[in-house]
Amino acid sequence: MCTETREIVAPKVKDILNKYAKDKGMLVAILQDIQTEFNYLPRPALEAVSQGLGVPMSQVYSVATFFKAFSLKPKGKHSIHVCMGTACHVRGANKILDKLVEKLGCCAGENTEDMKFSLDAVNCVGACALGPVVVVDGQYMGNMTTEKVKPLIEGCQ
What we know:
Layout: H1 6-19, H2 27-38, H3 43-53, H4 57-66, E1 78-83, H5 86-90, H6 93-104, E2 110-111, E3 117-122, E4 134-136, E5 139-141, H7 149-156
Parallel strand pairs: 1-3
Antiparallel strand pairs: 1-4, 2-3, 4-5
């Protein structure tokens, strides 16, 4: 698994904290930078932020778990989000999700064994006119079909 040790995390977190002059008001930005660096928020990083900013670990953890954009568990290199909102659902989002599960070999909410992909079923992504929609690494893929799943995966590799 991708669990980072204190020895790996500490120097990177220190650089990020210094970038923000250890300003407690910049906690969200600091966590965003850490997530960008590690693709999730490792516990040793949260502990280092708590210590570096002089704030309780409960405060850091509270912010890290409040925002859905943050993840406390390792994520795959590429993120795939299948919109399951009403407009996408009635246009076949379930079939697309099933095909992704089949091709990737992992269920929604999980990562592939090689950590290349994270697959999630999400609520409405706000692109109903394009449904069904799959969001890959932040890019919206509209009018998705089961036939487009294989090329979509291959395009990420």
